[in-house]
């Protein structure tokens, strides 16, 4: 009989569960909600959570993201302190050539949190007169483009923002002191000043549009919960909005579960669990 990898993993899980019960082990790890990633065959193993210390699983990241170990499948283990290492998926940023400038980083790929230096040609500068840009969850913190410095203090078109737009069609050129306003797409929350202003040939720092959350009936069924104040099968929530759940009839909040009252945090919701 051929024993598959999945069978071996399941046998290991059942054995550890039995040993933990015999030994009176109480520490449990909840299902790891991994932003931009998922456990290997997670639909098969999810009903087994929470799991005791010693259990291990593999997870992978979605396209354009990678775990800190830089492996396609990364091993995580339930310990007394929680999951080790912390399961996370970081953005991969490809650094192209620099328009009107140069950098030793051209053609390389960087992991979220990395910073690269850019040297602009004479008469050009990066946005907000910076000398570097960073790889963030949404990509590069600003375009790797060196813009012409207008000696008269004029500015070119305002910088684009992810998941947002200008409230009016942009001009080719703006005089010093002129401002433009941004707005976010539906279900995104604007963080920062809604207006940017042209000063000395440079635009002030543009705002960011933070991602909202989608709470589905499928997710709530997996955790044996429902919305406290709504009977909708799908709820759209904006960043920082408060979301209240309650246990379904006959279920009670798990001892190690997050609270029933939570918040949407830039596209992520930590679901409570009822058993």
Give a quick summary of the entry.
The protein has 275 residues and is mostly beta strands. The protein contains 3 helices and 27 strands.
Key phrases:
275 residues; mainly beta; four-stranded antiparallel beta sheet; 3 helices; 27 strands
Secondary structure: elements and pairs:
Elements: H1 5-23, E1 28-29, E2 37-39, H2 42-45, E3 51-52, E4 56-61, E5 65-66, E6 74-79, E7 82-84, E8 90-95, E9 101-102, E10 108-111, E11 115-117, E12 119-120, E13 124-125, E14 132-136, E15 139-140, E16 147-148, E17 164-166, E18 179-184, E19 189-191, E20 195-199, E21 202-203, E22 208-210, E23 213-216, H3 217-222, E24 225-227, E25 234-237, E26 242-247, E27 261-263
Antiparallel strand pairs: 1-3, 2-4, 4-6, 5-8, 6-7, 8-10, 9-12, 11-14, 13-16, 14-15, 17-18, 18-20, 19-22, 20-21, 23-25, 24-26, 26-27
